[in-house]
Amino acid sequence: MTRPYVPIDCEFHDVLEATAVRRRVAVIHHLDDDGRTRVLEGRIADLYAAGAVEYMRLDDGNVIRLDRIVSIDGERLDAYQRR
C-alpha cells in the first residue's frame, strides 16, 4: 500500500526546477516502493502533478514521486522540511 502524498517544501521544489532548467545530469537518491534507497543519475525532463501528487520525470523515462526523494546532488529534502 502506498503512503499518502506529503507535499514537499517550496524551496526544495525550487531546487528541482533550477536543476531541470539547467538540463544537467543530477544524482538523485530516492525511496522505492519497498522503502529502500535507490540512486539514479539523469536529467529532469518534467515536474508535474497528477491526482494531487507531484512527480518528477527523468529523460530516461523514470518517474519519481517528489516526497520519495531523499536528495538531489547532495541537497537533502529533509533539510528543507525542518525550516
TrEMBL record:
<dbReference type="InterPro" id="IPR038626">
    <property type="entry name" value="Rof-like_sf"/>
</dbReference>
<dbReference type="InterPro" id="IPR023534">
    <property type="entry name" value="Rof/RNase_P-like"/>
</dbReference>
<protein>
    <recommendedName>
        <fullName>Rho-binding antiterminator</fullName>
    </recommendedName>
</protein>
